[in-house]
Amino acid sequence: MIETTHGRIAYTDSGGGGTAVLLIHGNSACKEVFDRQVESPLATRYRLIALDLPGHGQSQDATDPMQTYSFAGYGDTVVQLAAQLRLRNPIVVGWSLGGHIAIELLRTDLDPRGILLTGTPPVGAADLEQGFLPHPHMALTGKREFTEADIAAYAAETTTTAPPWLEAAVRRTDGRAREYMLQTAMAANAPNQRLQIEATSVPTAVVTGTDEPFVNNDYLDGVAWGNLWERRVHRIDGCGHAPFLEQPAVFNPLLDRFIASLSTS
Questions:
Q1: Rounded distance, CA 84 to CA 30, Å?
Q2: How many percent of the chain have pLDDT more than 90?
Q3: CATH classification of the domain holding 136
Q4: Total structural domains in the chain?
Q5: Of 126, 127, 143, 121, which Cα lies nearest the Cα of 214?
Q6: DSSP codes of every residue in 84-102
Q7: Minimal CA–CA distance to 259: which of 72, 101, 44?
Q8: What is the pLDDT of residue 128?
Q9: 204 vs 140, more confident
Q10: Which residues, in sequence order, are CB contacts of 262 under 8 Å at separation 6+?
Q11: Are strands 91-95 and 20-24 parallel, antiparallel or unpaired?
Q12: Taking the alpha carbons of 6, 8, 9, 15 in that order, is the dihedral positive or negative?
């Protein structure tokens, strides 16, 4: 555990000797979604660090929920964790909500050397309907109180290969984390992440599943990425919202190549 102003944060650290890579999970999930990376050969080649966001997994609920449960609050949590772990210019991998946090980190002194987004459309208020696909799941994104049916549906819809512990992670999540995060993300003064990502010079890898149920892949193609890695959005056939979990045999080599390209630049 690491103490932050947002609460105690649980994390795993592979201890590899290479480039540091922060892995940030999605809404109502936990760090274990990245087990297929942390338990792969990547974990010895690089230093992979996965954390539970406040209100998620084994981390403490936020000490100040209104301040913490937002892109900015989560981003500050990551900055504090990285400082205590003495990480310099890490690569950030963000899934879904984690991808929005990765974009937020571009505005901080974390100074990531690169970010990889998956399941994350960079949107501003005007782009919300274009960036996301209509889906019943989206109604649960900001819902505070979940029924058992909501828990089962959220876990099952998040990934095509939902492991049993994912449902437990959804059940454990502080419902205020969903509610406040969505409120702040949709506020009139919320940062426009599309403009941020179009203006950045930080290398940005984008990976999506061809069967992505929530993100509009055509929208991703229309973003004028500031520095799109390999000049294309990488599509992985036959998987949905969580390519790293559903198709690690395809995703991990992509991640390896991205990290290696930045480790030698």
A1: 21
A2: 75
A3: 3.40.50.1820
A4: 1
A5: 121
A6: HTT--S-EEEEETHHHHHH
A7: 44
A8: 82
A9: 204
A10: 19, 91, 113, 114, 203
A11: parallel
A12: positive
Q: pLDDT tens across 151-173, in order? A: 888 888 888 777 888 999 999 99
List residues bridging with 12 in a β-sheet: 50
Q: Three-class SS of residue 153? A: helix
3-state secondary structure of 228: strand
Give the DSSP letter of residue 5.
Answer: T
Question: What is the reported pLDDT for 264?
Answer: 63
Percent of the chain with pLDDT over 70: 99
Band of pLDDT at residue 110, cut at 50, 70 and 90: very high
212: domain range? 2-263
pTM over 0.85: yes
245, 23 in Cβ contact below 8 A? no
Q: Shortest CA distance to 227 belongs to which of 253, 260, 262, 183?
A: 262
Using DSSP's 3-state secondary structure scheme, residue 24 falls into strand
| DSSP run (H or E) holding 206 | strand 204-209
Question: 40-49 pLDDT, tens per residue?
Answer: 999 999 999 9
Assign 208 to helix, strand or coil: strand
Give CA–CA dist 17/43, Å, rounded.
Answer: 9
- Look-up of token digits 């997994």: 57
| Pair 93, 116: CB distance under 8 Å | yes
- Tell which residue, 206, 212, 217, 218, has the closest CA to residue 241: 212
Measured over all CA atoms, what is the biggest interatomic distance in the chain, rounded to whole angstroms? 49
3 state DSSP class of 110: coil
